[in-house]
Amino acid sequence: MHLLLLLLFLFISWVSGKLIQATIGDNVRFHLIGECKTGKCTLRHQLMDGTNQLVAFLDGVWKPGPGYINRVVYSSDSLILKRADFNDHGYYPFTCNYKQRGELEELHVFLPYKVVAFRGEDATLPCRSVTVGQAVKSVRWRRDGELVLELNPLSKQITYRDGYDESRVSIPSDWNQRGDLSLTVKRAQLRDEGVYYCDVEKTERHRSAVHLHVSTPSPPPPGSTSQPTTTPTTSEKCHAEKC
After folding, report:
1. Whole-model pTM over 0.85
2. Is the Cβ–Cβ distance between 123 and 184 less than 8 Å?
3. Are 80 and 28 spatial neighbours (Cβ–Cβ below 8 Å)?
4. What class, spelled out in words, does domain 19-110 have in CATH?
């Protein structure tokens, strides 16, 4: 039993790491720490069946693995995985000079739901998840990787990042009863465009993505200005009908 608990602890420690969220077709950046810039190093992709694929290896210079030709490039202090797809979803451990790097990279790839809003309108980005009977630890909305707001269910407090506050974004106050964690962006502007990620940490973790597109209403075509409507007087009506 003690051995089982130890293995479970080690597994939890192993899989906890940096979360990378990307949409289909995005380029994904894996940052290299100092010890992974020289010597013998590898980056692998752990698959669900327990096997792994060699993504890239360092032997003087970083090179792509057999299945990643033309998909992995080295840039400054990072490895870039090009054109992410669903099969890239999973964990990515670095082994640097025969030692496992402490933090795992966890990649989640999404096909985002699209929401279109006119500039100045409120836009609701859907996020639905079962909340009854589950201990919800936190709710986070991110935009292009940057935190927008975070809900702490225990304290019932919402914290906002710079540039956002309750006058700009909100989630339903009765989210727990309805399982509705949708984000409302109030009076959406062009700068609000981007991919928003909903992360719900609970018994069964939930993650989803929404792409918000903000458009400017097109002006009416020339000559289409509507004419004011007038009501004819009695004399004008009689003249037309030859009273």
Report:
1. no
2. yes
3. yes
4. mainly beta
